[in-house]
Amino acid sequence: MQSDMLLAATESLPQDGPGGGTLLLGYGAEEELNRFAATPGWTVHVPGHPDEVRRAVLGAVREGERAYVHVSAESNAEPRGGGEGFERVRDGLGGVVLAVGATLDPVLRATAGLDVTVLYATTVRPFDEIGLRTAALAADRADVVLVEPGRPGILAGHVAETLIHVPHRLLVLGAADTRDEPALGRAVRDFLT
């Protein structure tokens, strides 16, 4: 059975080929996501819903970007955002949880009742340094939990670089951690308290 996310990506590709840019799609390709997230000159999208996949593909083609769109089998229940930078989904003072792509729904359920700011990222390169720094400085402590699709650690360097002059701690979690939401909630709570 095809993933709704993959189907959305293929349906959004222009029939006459991309314009002046380069568009690459990766389906569950964690190594490719790692590589493009670390390669200057590429825009990297990690959409969490089929509508967001369509928006990323069509936007990259329209803008003529050198873009990599990472598509996973999982998806969030509802599309979000579409604006620039990280979307602030929930406000809190106890720290920041940055959920990337399809990790958002499990993060929201796991952190329900916790006093944390939840940011949602569908584009990770360019990295929204201002959005993360603003949220971290508004919290009582600038501690960050990063929850990424696939293996953890892809964006840890970007977070550390963004907060280099801000005393903070960083907990990095991956997709495997989102499969056990009570454990995810405990990990976030234990780290931020």
UniProtKB/TrEMBL annotation:
Superkingdom in the source lineage: Bacteria
InterPro entries the UniProt entry points to: Transketo_C/PFOR_II
Protein name: Transketolase
